[in-house]
Amino acid sequence: MSDFAPTIGRDAISSIRARALFDWWVAKRGAQPMPMRGGYHAEELAAWWPDLILYDVENDGGKSRLRFRVHGDNAVRADGGNFTGRFLDEVLAPESIRLILDCYAAVLETRKPLYTRSHRFSREGHNIGFERLLLPFGDGPVLQVLAYLVRIAGARADPAEGNLPDLRGDYVNDILAFVAP
User: Fold this and answer.
1) Dihedral pair phi/psi, residue 70, rounded to 5°
2) H helix intervals, the chain
3) Which of 43, 56, 128, 177 is 20 to 30 A from 62 (CA-CA)?
4) pTM
5) Could you say which DSSP state residue 81 is in?
6) Are 133 and 13 in contact (CB under 8 A)?
7) What residues have CB less than 8 Å from 4, skipping those under 6 apart?
8) Residues 79, 86 contacting (CB under 8 angstroms)
9) 69-104 in b/e burial notation, b at 16+ Cβ within 10 A?
10) Domains along the chain?
11) Which backbone phi and psi does 86 adopt, to 5 degrees?
């Protein structure tokens, strides 16, 4: 999976808040591939909590699954519900499950942060854009993933303008890349 996505520098992350969170993660990891699970205090993340999701990585018969541990208020609204305690693969829409789970699998395998900017068209034809930064934590294998998720406006043009296919319900990654510290 290391060839899953190209690598970008932190300056390619469009959001100032996402870049600041990435910088915090880099400072926490020091010389290690990633910060230790529990190597931070929740208060350090206060500025980002509404947009964060914290997943615990659980082994289910040799398969890694991500369980929602914390689901920030804005992320709850973007996701359409509070999924605390549930597994990610239980709540994803069928049309997006493979794309999203592949992103998390790449983070678990490589132990590298992953940045995506994606969009989809709602069933009503509205363009909905999302920015996501996935940050791994652990002491060898990834034990937790911190996801920064925000909805952004105007990620792409409307299909009614004739310059994009009608992708109602399907997610499209405009950017999908590992981020080099």
Assistant:
1) -130, 135
2) 16-29, 73-79, 88-91, 97-110
3) 177
4) 0.86
5) S
6) yes
7) 102, 106, 110, 178
8) no
9) ebbbebbbebbeeebeeeebeeebeeeeeebbeebb
10) 7-35+43-153+166-180 (3.30.450.20)
11) -95, 165
Other CB atoms within 10 Å distance of the CB of residue 170: 14
> Tens-digit pLDDT profile for the chain (181 aa)?
557 888 999 999 988 999 999 999 999 999 999 999 988 998 999 999 999 999 999 998 889 999 999 999 988 887 778 999 999 999 887 777 888 899 999 999 999 999 998 876 655 666 677 889 999 999 999 999 999 988 776 544 444 444 444 444 466 767 889 999 8
- CA 101 – CA 38 distance, rounded (Å): 24
Q: How far apart are the first and last CA of the chain?
A: 19
Show the tokens assigned to 32.
């290690």
